[in-house]
Amino acid sequence: MKMPRARLLDGLLTWPDLSWPLVYRVFCRNLLVFSRTWQANLMFNFVEPVIYLWALGFGLGVYVNRIQGLPYVNFLAPALIASSSMFATTYEMTYGSYTRMTVQKIFHSIVATPVSMDDVVLGEILYGAFKGVLYGLVFLVVVALFGLVKSFWALLAPVPIALMVTVFSVLSMIWTSIAPGFDSFGYFFTLLITPMFFFSGVFFPVDTLPAGIRLIAWFMPLYHAVEVVRPLILGTAGWAVAGHLAWLAIVALLTIRIPLVMVKNRLIQ
Amino acid sequence: MNVDQQREPVILASKLVKKYGDFEAVKGVDFAVRLGECFGLLGPNGAGKTSIVRMIYGFSPVTAGSLKIFGEDIMSRPRAIKARMGVVPQDDDLDPALSVRENMIVYAGYFQIGKDLARKRTEEILTFMDLMDKIDEPVENLSGGLKRRLALGRGLINQPELLLLDEPTTGLDPYARHLVWQRLRKLKEDGATMLLTTHYMDEASQLCDRLIIVFQGEIVEEGQPGALVERHLGREALELGIGHYPDSLFSDSEHMIRSRQRMGDDLVLFTDHGLELMERVSEQASRQQITLRYRRLRPSNLEDVFLQLTGEPLREDAPGPLDGRQGEGSVEDAQSTPA
Fold first, then answer.
1. pLDDT, tens digit only, all 339 positions of chain B
2. Whole domain around residue A108: which residue ranges?
3. First to last CA, chain A
4. Contacts of A1 in chain B (CB under 8 A)
5. Cβ atoms of A117 and A18 closer than 8 Å
6. Interface contact flag, A113 B61, Cβ < 8 Å
7. Which pTM does this prediction carry?
8. Which of B79, B98, B158 has the CB atom closest to A116's CB atom?
9. For chain B, what are the domain ranges?
10. Rounded to whole angstroms, how far apart are CA atoms B262 and B269?
């Protein structure tokens, strides 16, 4: 059945039909499934940043003098907390959500009950965000065990992480809502997530980039999260973090309605 | 007018329309489902049955016309209406990541049923559906028939006043179908109001008090299953294995034939005088040296009505909605048309 382009965003300016207790039920459904597989799940998403930490922090780091006056591993580790969260959320909200939406028809079965489609999608987004925060926390513990946490301000790291993963949850869900199949997620990661991983100040400060690319970094959620998480871990946070937090919060608020209407417009005809 | 009819219908559709872009899947249908009845929605694949069901449970928006469930507009109060309804969808959409029990409990959560009550009902329903020995089995290990029983059981978790069943036995083996039918009959005896879509005519005859036949988005007939057969065809069907035949074959039996239908290589005659018709036709056949490959007399059924209404009628003046619309009749059909 053909679907005119304009329909994608139909209802964008309407108020969502939300019932918070039911949003929570959708969230709990995913949590229940996660509770079944969390060990395997957590390992999978956790090993990768540890490898980066070892290989780059302790391997490459030997050859890198100092970045911003820090040993390389101290510079790198806090940012890997943020990127680890980013990957957890984006995987969940692309492959995971797409499976629930299409193959398993979970969304369809839920909306036959008093739950609305808006409840379902928001429940998904919150779950994706939750997963990102959880993975970030686990990695924070790893970083602390390596002795790389320098301040109690690190306890506030979940705040920027939560804002950032909400943005990623929303972005991924938007992609999922128009994805024709699993293959299309390859584009999402190759074109969006991987470049973000490399150019958001995780491995080197964005100041070293040419001015044009530095501007692009400003549009990347990961960059803003890194700019907050790193000073918190290192205990050097100043007022500058407020701007980055505001950027994340505003983007999350401005975009959250979009995946709700897009999924609805895809599934409901 | 009896008491049931005076009461407000559970489902009331008037001039109900569903469009997908330019395609009109449901073209202004009117029907009412009364309290305590099992109402059938029959039609071939793509007739518009699922579109109607999806509008009833608030999944698809109504394009035009009105659809009232429990006296309220489904578009304006979907949550309240859905809370009183049980849905057993056509596609298997059980939660494959969860066990049988968890499917029930999690689904109960969507109705905000408390944990204790949900547990209690889950055991009751699984006992009723004969699934207790599978209670901790992951859903993906269940056979098609068991999954369908679980889907039906899941639809009962909120003790619905209205149960929607979209092709509840499609794809099941005969044994599994009968198990599902048994349970549905039991629910019916307990006074459940049900709306059932199917393209199995035997299913409709078994379960439905009343039904509508939907074809290309329109209602082409409605009534009680038995009455429909009686009205359109007569009690019996005489199947004859016969290709070309002269009209003189029926020279002394024409008055007994209520209707004819070509089904593949067979000719089916509908009548209220089956034995006599069979004798006369056989006699004429041997007299005129026409070979009858075989003959069989059987009770006529809804399937026949359905073919009569939605398939190509044998005679151009046959009753049915396709009058004047066909034109793809085979040469054979054209030749066999009586003058």
1. 444 445 789 999 999 999 998 899 999 999 999 999 999 998 888 889 999 999 999 999 999 999 999 999 999 999 999 999 999 988 788 999 899 999 999 999 999 999 999 999 999 999 999 999 999 999 999 998 899 999 999 999 999 999 999 988 888 888 888 888 999 999 999 889 999 998 787 888 889 999 999 988 999 889 998 888 888 788 888 888 887 788 888 888 888 888 888 877 788 888 888 888 888 888 888 888 888 888 888 888 777 887 777 764 333 333 433 333 333 333 333 333 333
2. 18-51+60-267
3. 10
4. 20-21, 23
5. no
6. no
7. 0.86
8. B79
9. 3-228, 234-336
10. 9
C-alpha distances in Å from residue A81, one per residue of A37, A233, A247, A248, B287: 22, 10, 19, 17, 94
Cβ contact (<8 Å) for A29 and B94? Answer: no
CATH class label, B3-228:
alpha beta
Domain count, chain A: 1
CA–CA distances in Å: residue B320 to residues A152, B47, B216, B259, B334: 82, 16, 14, 11, 18
- Residue A8 domain-assigned? no
Partner-chain contact A1 B21, CB within 8 Å: yes
Q: Does B18 touch chain A (CB under 8 A)?
A: no
- Please give the residue of chain A at the shortest CA–CA distance from B54: A112
End-to-end CA distance of chain B: 44
**Superfamily of segment(s) B234-336:** YebC, transcriptional regulation domain (3.30.70.980)
Q: Which positions in chain A touch B93 (Cβ < 8 Å)?
A: 104-106, 108-109
Entry field: residues in chain A: 269
Burial of A40 from C-beta contacts in 10 A (0-12 / 13-18 / 19+): exposed
* Amino acid in the structure at residue A199: F
Total residues belonging to chain B: 339
Structure tokens given for A89 = 């959320």
Hey, are the CB atoms on A106 and B110 less than 8 Å from each other?
Answer: no
Give the minimum alpha-carbon distance from B60 to chain A in angstroms, rounded to a whole number.
6
Q: Which two tokens stand for residue B173?
A: 């083996």
State ipTM.
0.90
Structural contact between residues A207 and A201, judged by C-beta atoms closer than 8 angstroms: no
Q: Is residue A187 part of a domain?
A: yes
> How large is the angle between the packed helices B225-232 and B302-310, nearest 10 degrees?
60
Distance CA A156, CA B49 (A): 55
Question: Please, is A11 exposed, middle or buried when counting C-beta atoms within 10 Å of its C-beta (0-12, 13-18, 19+)?
Answer: middle
A49: number of Cβ within 10 Å: 25
Give B-chain residues touching A101 at CB under 8 angstroms: none
